[in-house]
Design brief:
The complex is a heterodimer of chains A (117) and B (112). With 117 residues, chain A is an all-beta fold. Chain A is built from no helices and eleven strands. Chain A is globular and about 40 Å long. Chain B contains no helices and eleven strands. In chain B, the strands form two sheets. In chain B, strands 2, 4, 5, 9, 10 and 11 form a six-stranded mixed beta sheet that branches. Chain B is globular. The chains are: A mainly beta (117), B mainly beta (112). At the A-B interface, strand 5, strand 9 and strand 10 of A face strand 5, strand 9 and strand 10 of B.
Chain lengths: 117, 112
């Protein structure tokens, strides 16, 4: 149980275009989803916390107009990187918190590798 | 601010025991997690400590001392497949509720 999927797994886009990444909890309801980004050989940096039905809370330094987050249902959150630039190239990982609770806190998706050319 | 420190790299041989340390200074504490991450993949959960002491789970054990802001992950009977990055993460209370703050990870290389 507790499976989180992400789509796409890899995406290459041109500078200036927008890219949408989906995060789904497949077998549980997630009131809260988290979006992280990870640069090579670096740790996961929390970008934002997404609560179902409300606006996302962004961490300091993360541009909310550039990284649009929508959490319209208990099983789906999306991250849209708008007007992408090469410096946005990164590994984006989502995680979801099980509504049923428990100490495991978050289940991670497999990640999306974004390359902006 | 939030600060989590762990060694950048460690090496060990098959069959050995290795201990990966983690120290933290965070505003609030609501549990400490260890994750394993292979290159290009998402982290997978290894252990969780919220009270002081040792939690054992097969070849992996994790220890926590809240008063010292210290934890370690102990890996026994090392196998080649244990070569990965090990992430220490602290759950804190932030503006959105609770969040996991990650250390930079320790890259463990296991050789034969």
């Amino acid at each position: 149980g507790a499976v989180v999927s992400q789509h796409p797994s890899r995406v290459i886009c041109k500078s200036g275009t927008s890219v949408k990444i989906e995060c789904r909890s497949l077998d549980f309801q997630a009131t809260t989803m988290f979006w992280y980004r990870q640069f090579p050989k670096k740790s996961l940096m929390l970008m934002a916390t997404s609560n179902e039905g409300s606006k996302a809370t962004y961490e300091q330094g993360v541009e909310k107009d550039k990284f649009l987050i929508n959490h319209a249902s208990l099983t789906l959150s999306t991250l849209t990187v708008t007007s992408a630039h090469p410096e946005d190239s990164s590994f984006y990982i989502c995680s979801a918190r099980d509504l049923a609770g428990g100490p495991y806190e978050q289940y991670f998706g497999p990640g999306t590798r974004l390359t902006v050319t | 601010g939030q600060n989590i420190d762990q060694p950048t790299e460690m090496t060990a041989t098959e069959g050995a025991i290795v201990q990966i340390n983690c120290t933290y200074q965070t505003s609030g504490f609501n549990g400490l997690f260890w994750y394993q991450q292979h290159a290009g993949e998402a982290p997978t959960f290894l252990s969780y400590n919220v009270l002081d002491g040792l939690e054992e789970k097969g070849r992996f054990s994790s220890f926590l001392s809240r008063s010292k802001g210290y934890s370690y992950l102990l890996l026994k009977e090392l196998q080649m497949k244990d070569s990965a990055s090990y992430l220490c993460a602290v759950r804190v209370f932030d503006q959105a509720g609770t969040a996991l703050i990650f250390g930079k990870g320790t890259t463990l290389s296991v050789s034969s």
